[in-house]
Design a protein that fits this description.
The protein contains 8 helices and no strands. With 141 residues, it is mostly helical. Helix 2 runs antiparallel to helix 3, helix 2 crosses helix 5 and helix 3 crosses helix 4. The longest helix is centred in the middle third of the chain and has 16 residues.
Length: 141
């Protein structure tokens, strides 16, 4: 268990921790197998509105639930990599899968180069000083 997860856990009640696990498990279920929020609230021993408050307004609960979800998904990483390798090694390799593989290992990066062009052309410090003097003259008039 990560330090962050332990820290968040210490800020929650036993009911909140149980609710977070049940909500994550429910989110990962197939659509037909999901249980209602009311049923989760009842299993935890709180009113549905209390569960709603935790889910929507309790920052520690939300972060804890997200950390648990990340841990749940980490279990599937090797399977995801396996599927990606199938797409790369197929008779018609997936360019997207190859791109993801290269990005994962830092071999392909997105670079953007932005150039700004001065509409007045390149100006030197002297040019800028002259313009400032002209502006000062206009202000003095």
């Amino acid at each position: 268990m990560s330090k962050k997860l332990r820290e968040l856990e210490s800020k929650l009640t036993v009911q909140q921790r149980k609710a977070a696990f049940l909500l994550v498990e429910n989110d990962l279920r197939d659509t037909g197998d999901k249980i209602s929020q009311e049923d989760i609230a009842a299993e935890v021993g709180v009113h549905y509105k209390t569960l709603w408050e935790w889910r929507k307004k309790n920052r520690n609960f939300i972060e804890y639930k997200n950390e648990i979800a990340d841990d749940f998904l980490a279990e599937y990483r090797s399977g995801v990599y396996g599927q990606m390798m199938k797409l790369i090694n197929s008779s018609q390799p997936s360019v997207k899968a190859i791109s993801l593989y290269l990005q994962r290992y830092g071999l392909l990066t997105q670079k953007q180069q932005i150039e700004t062009v001065d509409p007045n052309g390149a100006r030197t410090n002297e040019d800028l000083e002259d313009e400032l003097k002209d502006l000062d003259k206009l202000l003095d008039e």
